[in-house]
What we know:
Among the domains are: 31-135, Serine Threonine Protein Phosphatase 5, Tetratricopeptide repeat, CATH 1.25.40.20; 140-247 and 266-273, Alpha Horseshoe (Serine Threonine Protein Phosphatase 5, Tetratricopeptide repeat). Helix content is 48%, strand content 0%. It has helices at 8-21, 31-41, 45-52, 55-58, 73-80, 83-91, 106-112, 116-124, 139-146, 149-157, 181-187, 191-199, 211-215, 223-229, 234-242, 262-272, 277-290, 305-308, 324-329. InterPro entries: Ankyrin-SOCS_Box, Ankyrin_rpt, Ankyrin_rpt-contain_sf. One of its GO terms (molecular function) is transcription cis-regulatory region binding.
Amino acid sequence: MEQPKPDTTTLMDIKKIFSLLQPGDDEADSEDSSELSRAVCQDDATTLARLLSQDRYKKLLNKRSGWGVPSTPLRLAAARGCVRSLRVLLEHGAEVDSLDVKAQTPLFVAVSNGHRECVRALLEAGASPLGSVYNNCSPLLLAARDGREDILRQLLEHGAQANVHARLPEWAANSVSCSGPLYLAAAYGHLECFRLLLLHGADPDYNCTEQGVLAQIKEPKTLLETCLRHGCRGDFIRLLIDFGANVYLPEVPKDGANPPSEGLEMLLQARAHPKSLLSQSRLAMRRLLQQPGCSATLGELEIPTALARATPPGQTTPPTALTTPLVNYTRH
């Protein structure tokens, strides 16, 4: 019987990672690397720029050195929040999406440590908001989990996917693998991040749009059901219903031992009073406009000025042109 061939692509990817990411033996502990790192850590932009004007230091610009996780100067700046050094490094040609031995980009490290100005500078320099294809996690998942609303907004505005999930093979799919940023925001109680993700098109039912992943899970749980089971505040339930979650999918507890929660009462009320055709049409329009390349058509809609400039409840300033009418269109 013929033996199955090994997955050569995967093996090549692994070899590529480890061959590219190991620090050079000749420069890992050199004095020049140490001097460059010191300038970065002190966020001394003047000294750093002076050093990088010299060829002997500039050739170390994308070299990995140091103890623990060998770092490029850019990763070091991103990890420590040294935004002045980070900008100087980018101006001198630092590789914006370079990987460390954990397959993490400088952007991933900046998000992980909550350095929003570094996140902004990296995204403006062209860093991928998706992170690395070799890393199971993504910057967006980190921001949603940690409740970093400003960083989350930056990532979404630069093209991060609101329905992203952990990068696992389909055969390893389980309830965790389709737990996207919307689930994480709910689980950790970050309501504003939850709202922001819905505004940018997060699926209100499963937060996972890959049918292949959902098909591998025996009994996938909807976000409504998850929020009810974990006792999330009613605000989370209300937002899911407002953004078009299917209220008939969750299993409602049948025992009457405990009084119904605020969220469960909302769900039962939504079932008793289905959305009007007008409300459903608004939700359908919103989903259409969320598709790639369709946001520009929003400006062609004949929306009254008063409605376009309206400020939704709970906000102190009007939202962006993209979300203003869409928020209003999701109301009953």
